[in-house]
Prior knowledge:
The complex is a heterodimer of chains A (280) and B (355).
Chain A: H1 4-26, H2 29-52, H3 61-67, H4 72-103, H5 106-110, H6 116-144, H7 158-181, H8 186-199, H9 211-217, H10 221-234, H11 242-274
Chain B: E1 25-36, H1 41-45, E2 53-65, E3 70-74, H2 81-88, E4 96-101, E5 104-105, H3 110-115, E6 117-120, H4 133-143, H5 148-161, H6 177-189, E7 195-199, H7 207-222, E8 226-231, H8 234-240, E9 243-248, E10 251-256, H9 258-263, E11 269-277, H10 281-288, E12 293-300, E13 303-310, H11 313-326, E14 329-338, H12 341-349
Parallel strand pairs in B: 3-8, 3-9, 6-7, 7-8
Antiparallel strand pairs in B: 1-2, 1-4, 4-5, 9-10, 11-13, 11-14, 12-13
Helix pairs in contact in B: 4-5, 5-6
Amino acid sequence: MPGRSALKAEARAALAIARKELRIAVRYPLNAVNEVLQPLYQFLLPSLLLGATFLVGGRAIGLEASAGTSDLAGFLFLGMIVGGLVGTAFWEIAFSFKREMDAGTLEPAWLTPTSPETLVIGRAISGLVISGAASLVLLGIGLFVFGASFSPGIWLALPALLLAAASMIGIGYLVASMVLLLREPSFFVDATNFLFAIVSGVMFPVVVLPVAVRWVAYLLPTTYALDLLRVHALGTRPLLSPALEWILLVLLALGTLLLGRWVFGRTEHRMRVKGTLGQH
Amino acid sequence: MSGHPMEPVGRTGRRASGPTRGPAIEAVGLVKEFERGRRTIWQRIRGEADQRERFRAVDGVDLRVERGEIFGMLGPNGAGKTTTMRMLATLLEPTAGSARVLGIDVVAEPREVRRRMGAVLSDGRSVYWKLTARENLEYFAALYHVPAAESRARVTRALETVRLTDRADDYVERFSTGMRQRLVLARALLPDPEILLLDEPTVGLDPQSARDLRERVVELRGEGRTVLLTTHYMEEADQLCDRIAIVDHGRVVALDTPTGLKRTIAATEVVRLELSGGEPESAVLDRLARGGSIAHSARENGALNVTIHCRSARDFVPAAFDAARATGATINHVEVVPVTLEDVFLSLTGRALRE
């Protein structure tokens, strides 16, 4: 069990990693702006415009029937918040290991006494800061440009978002393990990120998924986090009873964190045996 | 013992760390095996036998590096130097054998080893180009768990040591290769390490930058630090190292001081001859061998290149001309050089370092 000073040193290291990531991000300003706006022009606008062609009297009748709300803009913008969290796990946490490997900066970090787990946590902090900022911008655009309206009860779903963020750190550990093991992980990260977001119900209600895929959705913590967010903010029909969703969300968040840490630890050991850390 | 965390305190005056005052590094029977080839996921799923060939990159290395010395591992590319270094740096787990750094087992307590060691294991690209030199070092100081109160002073001192203070706030992308390599060395100094591992530290540097880096390494020994470096530049090893292990095919084939190693080939001078004509070749070599020991011979573009170790070139060269005349050969070129570590390697392995 690490002592208090060791934990403090690890916390400082995690913050230094986050600060470094953010510093580099703002030194490529166009790239940083793109990070924030990409979900808007790549997913939200096409979905909103497509959805608009099916509106009847300004109401998304089909969405109302399947999810219990006709507010398409609100539904999609909230989806993007959780989509941003998912993207953080896959790209900001996991894929950043690939970028560091390519730049030759991962090995020097591994040569320090900082725990490899802290390398993940540091990236999670910067990723969540970026994702949080992007979510606020998107919510603002949703509210003031696209007329989305949310119930004041949206704040009640904040713990769900925090639990989703925790579970995404667990997913980050898992995907980072794959990134470290695969020589060319871009396709893997891209495909799994997309599927994870889709199955979580970012773009449409989970109930429209084929039954077999829906069972996968029930295993993802983000499904419940997003569902609870929409229940509190838009008054949508919950997938399961909210109490059960909270319990499942807590259990899945804990489960992904523990499983992720274990797999990441095994991966690190495997890399030290195989000597693949410096390879890319 | 020292007021400043990185203040030079003399070769014997550094504070003790680690459980004992034993050797800085001790490796016993260190082995690292790798697999050649691939085993596909499909082969794994079908449960096919693993038919990959296993080979030993390091094959039973024994080392004992004393505190405060510059110890070199000299050998050609692929000899196993870097693999040994990576095991000592805790990046690789040995297949067999054991290694201790400052008395700490590298497998059992890797993080404890990393806390006390600085390492330069890759090239100068391994810093963040979009951060300044100071920002890079501040970042790594946090990763080395340097206390916040000490961090600034430690970074400043490291920049001073590698002569980068005036460029501390420039983005690394504007640095030359030599400056980046010095920054990497500064990073390795952040934990105020007793031991530094330097893997081919001057590869890719221009002569001036390489000389500059070597001077820094000598200064570090002056501060009482132990330096283990690998190189395939014999001049570098000769110039820098107190002791050298010559490594080939994953094994230490000789270990001594540079002078001691040179003494092993029982010659004071090396004569390199280029001959033409004179058949058969064996007859020419037999005659030449009467005046010295033939270390190497090879045909190249029709000419016979022979390297001979001898006690006195003054005596040998006239005899070599006589020998050539007697066998119908012509000596086209004669070169007399002092014995170098290259010759030691040649006599031990039958191959040149750069082959």
